[in-house]
Amino acid sequence: MTALLDVMFLVLVFFIYSIFDMTMHRGVKVDLPGAKGAEEKGDRVVVTILPDDSLQLDGEPLARPELVSRVAALVAGADAGEKPSIIVSGDRSASLGTGVALLAELKSAGVERVSFQVSGTAEP
Known about the structure:
With 124 residues, the protein is α/β, with parallel strands linked by helices. The chain has helices at 2-24, 64-77, 96-108; strands spanning 44-49, 55-57, 60-62, 85-90, 114-116.
């Protein structure tokens, strides 16, 4: 009986760590710019700007028009109180113009809650 409890405990710990790993790293790993910022709560949709200025939506490569329409559809399809926040995770070496153009297109498509992800440490 003790061996069974030990095995069940290890399985439980494994699933807890797996869940944390899946929820913490939904996007693609990029070199984030440094700044202090608040942590977003609730549902999130991660838009990644890679160093070559290509875009991904939750890890899936997309062209900007298709990405904007998909994000707008996700936000429009959600309930009023449960709209997901859009997190733009831009690599430090990506051009600023790509991020600004993406932000402008998302705003014009009706997406209101857009935040830029930062590393959490202020740069000197």
